[in-house]
Amino acid sequence: MFSQIKRLGADTAVYGISTIVGRFLTFLLVPFYTNVLSTGQYGIVATVYSYIAFLNVVYSYGMEASYFRFASSLEIGDKKDNFSTPFFSLAVTAVLFSGLLYGFASSVAPLFQVDVSYYRIIRYAAGILFFDTLMIVPFASLRLERKAKFFAALKIVNIASNVVFNIVTLVYLHWGVEGIFFSGAASSALTFALLLPHVYRHTRFAFSTQLYMELLRFGLPYIPVGISGIILQVIDRPILKAMSTDSAVGIYQANYRLGIFMNLVSSMFEYAWRPFFLSHAKDDNAKQLFARVMTYYVLASTLLFLVLSFFIGDIVTIKIFNHHIIRDTYWSGLGIVPIVLLAYVFGGISINLNAGIQIEKKTMYLLPTSVIAAVSNIAANILLIPKYGIYGAAYATLIAYVLSAAALFVVAQKFYPIGYEYFRLVKVACVTAVVFTVSTMLPSGGGMWVKLVLVASWGAIIALGRFFEEDELMAIKRIMRFSR
Questions:
Q1: Which terminus of the chain has fewer Cβ atoms in its 10 Å neighbourhood, N or C?
Q2: What angle do CA 232, 238, 243 make, to 5 degrees?
Q3: Distance of alpha carbon 219 from alpha carbon 225, whole angstroms
Q4: Are strands 323-324 and 319-320 parallel, antiparallel or unpaired?
């Protein structure tokens, strides 16, 4: 089991390094934007990108999940068939959708909650969506083939070029908000250009109708599921915009972005998790293996939750080139960060629970579970934002993520029951809750040394509370001996 988990850890590490580097580069844009843009301008960026996230689901119509399912088993056709058919399908529809979006940009702008004068933003958004769609199957194939290093390099190039384009367009060309969306389109185009040799090697000019129908049958349920998932992630921005101002959305977005550190964990885990559980689904110890992975994920993510919650206030006050991580005009929203972090913890749990549903090909049941979470998120936002503002939006997100995990658990256990290590999971949750509650009772959360003591106390209680089993202790000792 440890050798299998070690493989997952190795892939996660590679994806993780690229994700960390990439997200760090992306995170550099947060202080950049907050020091260059007003809270209102940043609010416009957050709102439009929320709609781009929704359209990404429509553009992809479940083809990534379908590709993974059929390219891994080759039930129909060979490798090139399973690459070419979904790739050409996505290419054709991307041309159609982006062509319409580009041509009717002025008419569509109000639907994105922006003034018609920003119609160029919509055209750049069409470009972003077009190139991102063309990269879906190539990137998925890199993951399936375990070419994690090449995948990671391309992701870093994409984000690094985006950062450079942003600096050029905002600082030197003074394009303002439009420069941000131009940068997104340009970096996506550059990345796809670098993928072209990979695309050429994997395609043939043929189209399998039989395979295509199976791809659609498997993938189409992901459209409402994907939209529901995006509702979990971004619906709070448009609702917050409708109920308040661009400035409130900007403050919310900047502080929500600080949850990126937890998002790193769930993202790098997700990249490695799907190929991992599909390749081990037929192993005799598969369910025991998946249960252990859940335990380790919860342990790692709750520790990170505590560390970030305790020290986020100290992090944002750090000055780089005489500028804070985020400008002080955005600090009023720092209190939402722990809420967002906890929501991401449950998001990672949902990623883990999704394995059984995909293994048993019960994706049609993802719809009711995701709809429950999406509807609850919308309702909670509408109810809480008028009274609690950006905090209401954050709590609505947390509520939705918790309900999503709960619904997925019920469905997954019905079709692919796994005996999770519940006692260990409860133990971690209780220790984390106690330590976090203690921190909230201290004036200003306690000083630096008090926070460090609290984190150390969490680790000591976990270790002394006999959380680790004998085989795990032996593995830890081997790792420590090797590190010396």
A1: C
A2: 120
A3: 10
A4: antiparallel
Residue 199 lies in a domain: yes
CA distances to 11, 183, 287, 303, 346 from 18, in Å: 11, 20, 29, 22, 23
Q: Read off the pLDDT of residues 78-128 as tens digits, 9 standing for 90 and up.
A: 889 999 999 999 999 999 999 999 999 999 999 999 889 999 999 999 999
Length of the chain counted residue by residue = 484
Q: The tokens 């020290």 sit on which residue?
A: 311
Per the CB < 8 A criterion, the answer to whether 319 and 463 are in contact is no
In angstroms, the CA 164 to CA 273 distance is 31
125 vs 107, 157, 170, 341, CA distance in Å?
A: 14, 20, 17, 28
pLDDT above 90 for 73: no
Q: How far is CA 228 from CA 62, 351, 439, in A?
A: 13, 15, 34
Q: Is 71 contained in some domain?
A: yes
| 201 is a domain residue | yes
pLDDT tens per residue across span 175-203: 989 999 999 999 999 999 999 999 999 99
Give the span between the Cα atoms of 481 and 126, in whole angstroms.
54
| CB neighbour burial string for 125-163, b if at least 16 within 10 angstroms, e if fewer | bbbbbbbbbbbbbbbbbbbbebebeebbebbbebbbbbb
Write the CA distances from 404 to 51, 269, 407, integer angstroms: 21, 18, 5
* Torsion angle of C-alpha atoms 353, 271, 338, 303, degrees rounded to 10: 80
113 Rama sector, left if φ>0, alpha if ψ -120 to 50, beta otherwise: left
Number of domain units in the chain:
1
The answer to whether residue 357 is domain-embedded is no
Cα separation, 358 vs 62, whole angstroms: 13
Q: Which domain holds residue 120?
A: 62-219
Sequence-separated contacts (24+) of 146-154 with Cβ below 8 Å: 146/11, 146/275, 148/11, 148/14, 148/15, 148/18, 148/272, 149/14, 150/198, 151/15, 151/18, 151/271, 152/14, 152/15, 152/17, 152/18, 152/19, 153/18, 154/191, 154/194, 154/195
pLDDT at residue number 211: 92
Place of tokens 């409130």: 248
